[in-house]
Design goal:
By secondary structure, the protein is of the alpha/beta class. The chain is 27% helix and 16% strand. The chain folds into two domains: 137 residues, 3-Layer(aba) Sandwich (Oxidized Rhodanese, domain 1); 120 residues, 3-Layer(aba) Sandwich (Oxidized Rhodanese, domain 1), CATH 3.40.250. It contains nine helices and 14 strands. It starts with 9 loop residues before the first strand and ends with a helix.
Length: 272
């Protein structure tokens, strides 16, 4: 089978099944903490993309912190990823941490990447085969990382954006967490939200484990922001914010970024 091209940020399980044997395809399992997942199996030929331990700055005090260009390039090469690789990423929940993996590749200049709509649950529901999880042991790749600063927002810039309202801040956490009606899951972290942020729970973009279609996504975003607005996405620790980024890209928004530290950082460093 000839090399693939990828033209959409989301692909179906049926598309992936038909293209499993493409020469340049790489399937990544982006499940958070695979060792603690109830799902031990993987899609055929998958390689585990370890967000927390390999693709995060583990010296940072906050979880899932964005890695350096050098770290990302090294770890991607260790997974056999090449410059011309077409990457499809999934997770065990449907669409959850897979969107973070998609966004990280885009942030490091690789656009030939898509999220598997419905992830592992949709694959199994379609009756497609799985295999036992095993570590990747093939040759290293020649992946080249080139960080795009416009894709990520860090603490100092976020303070300016919040104060000056230079972008629309969309929070992917539940409305109850956003409105401080329930405690944060991280012990000791205060409740609330970033000033001038708007609540858009990532679950509002989902139909069970599947991402909504383009028309439905556009309706969600069009009630909150204009197409020429700059959008910055936040959540608890930078994971589900990327689901909003995925929905926004499909909806035609071009000027988007993810706040890496998200509420865990903001709620820790900024007093109420």
């Amino acid at each position: 089978m000839s090399d693939l091209e990828i033209k959409h940020p989301v692909v179906s399980v049926h598309w992936l099944h038909e293209n499993l044997n493409a020469e340049n395809i790489i399937i990544l399992d982006g499940t958070i903490d695979k060792g603690s997942s109830t799902i031990a199996d993987q899609l055929p030929q998958s390689r585990y993309f370890d967000i927390k331990h390999k693709f995060s700055n583990t010296s940072d005090p906050f979880p899932n912190a964005f890695p350096s260009e050098a770290q990302f390039q090294t770890e991607a090469r260790n997974l056999g990823i090449n410059i011309d690789s077409v990457i499809v990423v999934y997770d065990d929940k449907g669409i959850y941490s897979s969107a973070r993996v998609w966004w990280m590749f885009k942030a490091f200049g690789h656009t030939k990447v898509a999220v598997l709509n419905g992830g592992f649950p949709a694959w199994v529901k379609a009756g497609y085969p799985v295999e036992p999880m095993r570590p990747y042991s093939g040759p290293k790749g020649n992946f080249k990382a080139q960080f795009r600063p416009d894709t990520m927002v860090f603490f100092d810039a976020m303070k300016t954006i919040s104060a000056d309202r230079t972008a629309r801040i969309l929070d992917a956490r539940s409305a109850a967490r956003f409105n401080a009606e329930v405690a944060e899951p991280r012990k000791g972290l205060r409740s609330g939200h970033i000033p001038n942020a708007v609540s858009l729970p990532y679950t509002a973009l989902m139909d069970e484990e599947l991402l909504m279609d383009k028309e439905a996504l556009e309706k969600r975003f069009n009630t909150i922001a204009d197409k020429d607005d700059k959008l910055v996405f936040s959540c608890g620790s930078g994971i589900t914010a990327c689901i909003l980024a995925l929905g926004a890209e499909i909806s035609g928004y071009k000027n988007c970024a993810v706040y890496d530290g998200s509420w865990t950082e903001w709620g820790t460093l900024v007093e109420a």
